[in-house]
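Researcher: Please translate sequence to structure tokens.
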Amino acid sequence: MTAPQKPRLILASASPRRLSLLAQIGITPDEIIPADINEDPIPGELPSPHALRLATEKAVAIAGKHPGAIVLGSDTVVGVGRRILPKTETRDDAKYCLKLLSGRAHRVLTGVAVVDKEGNLRTRVNETRVKFKRLSEQEFKDYLDSEEWKGKAGGYGIQGKAGALIQHLSGSYTSVVGLPLFETRNLLSGAGYPA
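Model: Translation complete:
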């Protein structure tokens, strides 16, 4: 008797970090198809609903074009109070974010959405609290000069040089990198993907 064929898995994200996190738990998507959606917050939208909405929109957009596949969408948002920090594209964006984060705690919210073969949607949001040390002028300059902040939610990537600036983390490290593996594995299992 042959083993049942594994369903097709599509990752609706171009993030190399998400791909390597999935590899860490032995999952290799059959295809990577980034969803082209508007990621701007809706006026008044809070960080957690924003992360969940974007993850859901990504998964649903790709699932609509690939019926019968399991689609995984995810989005990471950095929130300070009710504010959603941008994905930093310029040095000024990064400086703005680092000034806000220096010496205080913030939340990293990662939404995960999985659409199964029948088109059913399963979602989770992971919230992790992160506290930055108070940064010196030299630390600001060094991090900005590193350009590691480019395209990163909140202006930093914990897996790089910013890891040395983080005083405390409560929650999921992998969520801060870009994909909470515990929730992701559970959602994929529930959707019929042997994770």
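Researcher: Any highlights?
Model: The chain is about 35% helix and 25% strand.
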